[in-house]
C-alpha cells in the first residue's frame, strides 16, 4: 500500500474513486475541484494498492474568521474508502498524513463535519452549531426591494463580497472569501437560489435558501454594517425572507437558520443541529485566553461580542 499526494494527471481516477464510494454524483465532486480557486493536488492524500486508488482524504485550503481576523484552516472532506478495503486503518493513516501536510503548510487550524470517533482520536473536537426555527408568512411589501442576485454583474458581485466580508468577520468559523473567482464559480454554483435586498439602489442584505417542502433552509445571510447596528439585521431578515417566500409562491414556511444571526436565539425553537469539529495545528499562533476549542469558537473578544449564546457559524454554501 502506497500513501502519498495525488499526482495532477490522476484527477480523473480520483473522481472515479469518490463517485464510486459516495452517492453525490461525479458533477458534485468535479465542481468542488474546478470551482475552488485554492485547489491543490498536494492536498488530496491517497492510498494506492496496485495502481488503484482505494482510500482518500482531501484537505480544502481555506481561511476562516476567528475573533475578527482570518486564520488559515484546512477543511477535511471526501474521506472515503472502497468497501472492500474498509476496517484496515487506511482512513486513519490518511488523516495522520493530512495533519503532516497541514503542518508543512503552516495551516493553523483544521475543521470537518462529522462526529465519528476516528476524528476525535486524532485530535478534532466537536463544536455545536445552533439553529433557530420560526414560521414566516409571505409578504411582498416591506422596507426593501427583493430580487434574485445577479452573478453576471461583476459590480454587483463585488458589492455582495464587500457586504459579506464585513458581516462574516463578526462571527467565528465563517470562511474568508477574498478571491472573486470563489464568488463567481463556487458560490454561484452552490447557491443557485440567492437573493438581495435593495434600498435606494444600494444592496443592504443577501440571503441564500433551499426549499424543502414546508421548510426553508437559510444557507447564508448577511447585511450591511448600518443595518446590522440598527438591530443586528432582525427587521431586514424578516422582510427579506417573507418576500422570498411570496416570490416562490408559498403562503408560509418554517424557516431554519443559524441562531446567532438576526434575533435567532429568541426564536420559538432553538436546537443543536449538526456540529463542526476543529483541530488546532499551531496553538502558539492563537490566543491563550480560552479553556477549550468549543470556548474559542463560541465566544468573541469584548470588542466583538454581541451578548449572545454562541458566535459560531458555518455557512452551508461553503460546505465541503
Keywords:
Aminopeptidase; globular; 320 residues; 12-stranded mixed β-sheet; 12 strands; 29% helix; alpha+beta
Describe the structure.
A twelve-stranded mixed β-sheet has the order 1-2-3-4-5-12-6-11-10-9-8-7. 41% of the residues are buried. With 320 residues, the protein is an alpha+beta fold. β9 and β10 (215-223) form a beta hairpin. The protein contains nine helices and twelve strands. The mean pLDDT is 96. It folds into two domains: 2-128 and 275-298, Aminopeptidase (3-Layer(aba) Sandwich), CATH 3.40.630.30; 131-272, Aminopeptidase. The chain has helices at 11-21, 26-34, 90-104, 117-121, 154-168, 180-190, 225-231, 234-247, 293-298; strands spanning 2-5, 44-49, 52-66, 69-81, 109-112, 125-137, 145-148, 194-199, 202-212, 215-223, 252-258, 269-280.
Mean pLDDT: 96
Q: Give the uncertain stretches in residue-range form.
A: none
Q: Strand fraction band?
A: 25-35%
Biggest sheet descriptor: 12 strands, mixed
Per-chain topology:
Layout: E1 2-5, H1 11-21, H2 26-34, E2 44-49, E3 52-66, E4 69-81, H3 90-104, E5 109-112, H4 117-121, E6 125-137, E7 145-148, H5 154-168, H6 180-190, E8 194-199, E9 202-212, E10 215-223, H7 225-231, H8 234-247, E11 252-258, E12 269-280, H9 293-298
Parallel strand pairs: 4-5, 10-11
Antiparallel strand pairs: 1-2, 2-3, 3-4, 5-12, 6-11, 6-12, 7-8, 8-9, 9-10
Q: In a nutshell, what does this entry contain?
A:
The chain has helices at 11-21, 26-34, 90-104, 117-121, 154-168, 180-190, 225-231, 234-247, 293-298; strands at residues 2-5, 44-49, 52-66, 69-81, 109-112, 125-137, 145-148, 194-199, 202-212, 215-223, 252-258, 269-280. By secondary structure, it is an alpha+beta fold. The protein folds into 2 domains: 2-128 and 275-298, Aminopeptidase (3-Layer(aba) Sandwich), CATH 3.40.630.30; 131-272, Aminopeptidase.
